[in-house]
Design brief:
The chain is mainly beta and 406 residues long. It contains four helices and 27 strands.
Length: 406
């Protein structure tokens, strides 16, 4: 389930690219910003490094130890436009001295009104503390998201250093990635923004082992409850998604980025262990997974193993698909095949062998005979600490076992 940087009014105003008008630059240093969500203000922070020229401007979103650099920033008169290529979104606003007032928009959505935000230059903290910091949030928690459709039990993992609280919440389909905030006498607050959906958690302790609060996004809110549990765990990710009865293999035949049709019957995949990654360029957990798989593949591809990604996207427009998937491959350095599988929700047509895809991402493990052996639902990435390390250990053991088979 994932900010900072902006404005240098340059000692002298520099000419705008492509015209004779002048414009200010993002002021160098740290910025604090807030989204004006329906249920409350969601804070985020970022840092700007512009080295004095528009072309060199970099805005870095910050969440705990996570750093998300944003490039390709442009200026027009008194406005700045900060693209977030990973998610086809954008921050844009008007520069007014040490402030930016603007909107966060989803470029892929037609007529998106956007979420208003205001950013102020300076090293102000993400959250102001209220009273003395308290101990108590460290460790694992059962975190329940309360809903009329049925409560959903998840896992929270938090770590405190002084008044600073970091961590993540894990669900059966992925994690909320890097959350950062404070803990004090009034409870704790956590937020995150990595370019897609901003999150805010506000909670108060009922006692040392229980809390209640609200999970807030730009679109709404949900009640949450927490119970300390050092044995907190999710459902077995290998049991959530299954093959339909009567199927043993996958029969997809899909185009790659060069529009060449690829299937598991191709010579490249025959007699090899194959990892099929179900993903979308719009999915934060998918990006975390690709970052891991791209690096892993470079180190292991000569062992008789292949990876192929099946991407389900927001649109089926060829130009749009090529743009977002090319950006994805370039950023993560993926050297395995990425295929366009259709729009989000087309998995039932493309993968009729699967009894309902539960999550993006999902990993399907295929043995040397082309048979599906395991299906792993969701992905808990680097923000989840021990859970991420456990996944990597299990992943490598499973691949090793499949490679040993005749």
């Amino acid at each position: 389930m994932k900010k900072y940087s902006m404005f240098l009014l340059a000692a002298l105003l520099l000419p705008a690219t492509g015209n004779s008008q002048n414009h200010p630059l993002l002021k160098q240093g740290k910025w604090r910003a807030e989204f004006a969500a329906k249920e409350g203000k969601i804070p985020f922070v970022f840092e700007v490094n512009n080295e004095g020229t528009p072309e060199a401007s970099v805005v870095t979103l910050i969440n705990g130890t996570e750093r998300v650099p944003l490039q390709g920033i442009t200026y027009k008169q008194d406005s700045v436009f900060i693209p977030i290529q990973d998610y086809d979104t954008q921050l844009s606003g008007v520069l007014k001295g040490d402030t930016i007032e603007g909107v966060f928009k989803r470029l892929y959505a037609d007529n998106d009104p956007g979420v208003p935000f205001k950013a102020v230059w300076g090293a102000a903290p993400r959250f102001a503390t209220q009273g003395t910091a308290v101990a108590g949030a460290d460790g694992k928690w059962d975190v329940t998201f309360v809903s009329e459709k049925g409560d959903e039990k998840n896992v929270g993992i938090f770590s405190r250093q002084g008044a600073t609280l970091t961590g993540s919440i894990l669900t059966n389909t992925g994690d909320l990635r890097f959350l950062e905030g404070v803990i004090d006498a009034s409870g704790f607050r956590l937020s995150a923004f990595a370019g897609l959906s901003p999150y805010l958690i506000r909670a108060q302790f009922i006692d040392k082992d229980h809390f209640e609060g609200t999970f807030i996004t730009s679109r709404g809110s949900q009640q949450i409850k927490g119970t300390r549990n050092n044995e907190a765990a999710l459902a077995d990710p290998y049991r959530l998604t299954q093959l339909r009865e009567g199927y043993a293999t996958l029969g997809f035949k899909l185009p790659d980025l060069q529009n060449k049709l690829v299937s598991l019957s191709d010579a490249k995949y025959r007699n090899k262990v194959v990892v099929v990654s179900i993903l979308g360029s719009w999915c934060p957990n998918c990006l975390d997974e690709m970052s891991y798989l791209a690096s892993w593949y470079k180190e292991n591809k000569d062992r008789g193993v292949e990876i192929v990604g099946l991407a389900f996207e927001r649109k089926n427009d060829p130009e749009y698909v090529h743009k977002v998937l090319s950006n994805l491959v370039k950023k993560h350095g993926a050297t395995y095949d990425i295929l366009f599988a259709g729009k989000i929700g087309d998995d039932k047509k493309v993968l009729p062998e699967i009894d309902g895809l539960k999550s993006y991402p999902t990993i399907i493990f295929i043995d040397k005979k082309g048979k599906v052996r395991k299906i792993h639902t969701g992905f808990n990435g680097p923000a989840t600490g021990l859970f991420y390390e456990e996944f990597k250990t299990e992943f490598n053991k499973l691949i090793d076992d499949l490679l040993k088979e005749n």
